[in-house]
Amino acid sequence: MVSTVLNCAANTVAIQGVMMSQESALLVAKVTKEIYAWKKKNDDETYGDKVINDVVQVVVKVVVVVVVVVVVVVVVVVVVAVAAVEAVVVLVVLVEVVIVAVAVVAVVVVIVVRVVLVVIVVAVVVVIVVESRPSKSGRRCYIQC
């Protein structure tokens, strides 16, 4: 259940990253198209080329930064998800250890109680047998003569 949720979260982040990358690429294409349209209207070819190169470089840098940020976010989400799953696994193991320890203690307590009960029963039987022996006068004496 936890791994399914974490997997869905990681997939969602990855899909969002891909969508952001696609949107960035579309933005680059649109800006480039607009720049070329502006260049056709502009008489100074050299200035237009410089502007196009500058804008394309800036847009490419922005796209690279966005992609890097998305990759970092995905990696962080995956690392946190893995850490969370490991923490849950550790907690589950600890709970299992506690359950086993409680079960062992319960078994030991039951054994001790049974031994104590057997000792009490044996002691009572011994007392009754010892105290119920015939006295010197020949009659049976229970507890006190």
Please count the helical segments.
2
Query: Based on CA inertia axes, which overall geometry fits?
Result: rod-shaped
| Count of extended strands | 0
**Pattern of helices and strands:** HH
Main beta sheet: strand number and arrangement?
Answer: none
Strand content: under 5%
Share in helix: over 70%
Low-confidence runs: none
Q: First CA to last CA: what distance?
A: 75 Å
Question: What is the multimeric organization of the chains shown?
Answer: single chain
Content-based structural category: mainly alpha
What topology does this entry show?
Layout: H1 2-41, H2 45-131
Keywords:
single chain; mainly alpha; 2 helices; membrane; transmembrane
Overview of the structural elements:
Keywords: Membrane, Transmembrane, Transmembrane helix. The chain crosses the membrane at residues 58-85, 97-130. With 145 residues, the chain is an all-alpha fold. The chain has a domain at 2-101. 88% of the residues lie in helices and 0% in strands. The protein has 2 helices and no strands. It has helices at residues 2-41, 45-131. Helix 1 (2-41) packs antiparallel against helix 2 (45-131). The radius of gyration is 42 Å and the shape is rod-shaped. The model has no long low-confidence stretch (mean pLDDT 72).
